[in-house]
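Batch manifest, entry 17 of 40.
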Amino acid sequence: MKPKTNLVVKTNQLNQALQTLSLAEVRIIQLAIVDARETATGLSTDKPLRIDATRYAEVFGTTRQNGYKRMKEAEETLFNRRFTYLDDNGKPIKSRWLQQVQYHDGEGAIDLVFTLAVVEGISRINGLEQFFTSYLLEQTTQFDSVYSVRLYELLTQWRAAKKTPCFQLEVFRNQMGLGINEYKRMNDFKKRVLDLATDEINEKSDLKVKYENVKQGRTIIGFKFTVHENPKAKTDKADKLRDVDTADMFTIEGLNDKQLGRIVRNPAFMAEYNHLVTPTSPAGQSQQGWEFEMINRLKKDASQFKKRPIRDYLEY
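Output type: structure tokens
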């Protein structure tokens, strides 16, 4: 039996929708597409699709309880979201993502029914790659920023061409989900959105991307990207096959981001290294902030975490 492939396929038109989804909302959409394919049922406007908290937790490296919480929070906002996409004639069409939702608290699951626009825009049909954007779900599960997911989805369409046309600034900002008043200064936009996303894509995915400014006089009016396969992704896959027992017990060699996330969420780890952050810092105020800070510290210098072997925290 062939292993399941978490393949996400979305029409380019829907993929280019001017949307403002959060990372958790994007993940619900991704799981819906993947699971509809794996069950060979597809999506419909009258048959609910169930998303299970255990499945969410497994894919995105969290606990079942936290997975269900994130799913419920994301669904509540996703239910009220609107998006705009362009039809074949280039005319904008407005739609919502969901038309119906039902909770199953005792089972840790939610049932979703998507709108007609979404159902028609998402396909489980293999082939016709020139009309679809396809990628492995695993390529985006390690992203910490929703901007990285959005940019990845835009750029993966151009991997065969290896370069993109000019992404006009205002359209591109909308595609990245930015409001009119968000990161209006170019320096802020690059630092908080564009550079953050390209760096994370280059570090954690199968793409190697680079952008250049497109100017009119001194004013930046858009960006062009080069898109290549990332050889580092192949190296990372090989690293995961290592026997981690042969590595030094205080290093993080052979551990991926999901495993590091599990380590820093361990209550014992949190108790033993809580002194490293201040209560007023982002890491001291939220679980997400803590995970982001601690994972980065482990990657930068794992030698400061020596109260017990790092891999001991994987078991809890």
